[in-house]
Design the sequence.
């Protein structure tokens, strides 16, 4: 959750982005209440977050987003924090490597589309 700085039609609006990339806008009566909601939502999300499962293995070499866990984490907050830091490092390394290996401009459309999907996912993460 974060303040919806680009949304200017109404005051005290914040956006909530879910793990499956959906975005919801909420309006609070006051700025203090808006920031209170944002901090509480982020706290609960952090306490219940679990690392994603690896993507399913298939015979085709296609990019597939990891599977999100359906149950809350049972790890203590310190371990969750370490897990998130390690995940961010892996994603940053993977993004760097992905951007170094650009597909051919005249390559197959499927390869270009798959490259774009993976890049969008890595940037989102």
Sequence:
């Amino acid at each position: 959750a974060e303040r919806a700085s680009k949304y200017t039609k109404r005051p005290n609006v914040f956006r909530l982005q879910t793990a499956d990339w959906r975005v919801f806008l909420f309006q609070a009566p006051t700025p203090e209440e808006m920031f209170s909601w944002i901090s509480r939502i982020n706290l609960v999300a952090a306490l219940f977050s679990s690392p994603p499962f690896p993507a399913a293995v298939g015979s085709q070499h296609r990019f597939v987003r990891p599977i999100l866990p359906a149950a809350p984490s049972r790890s203590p907050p310190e371990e969750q924090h370490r897990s998130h830091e390690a995940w961010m490092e892996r994603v940053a390394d993977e993004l760097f490597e992905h951007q170094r290996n650009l597909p051919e401009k005249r390559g197959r459309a499927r390869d270009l589309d798959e490259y774009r999907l993976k890049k969008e996912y890595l940037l989102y993460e």
Summary: The mean pLDDT is 82.
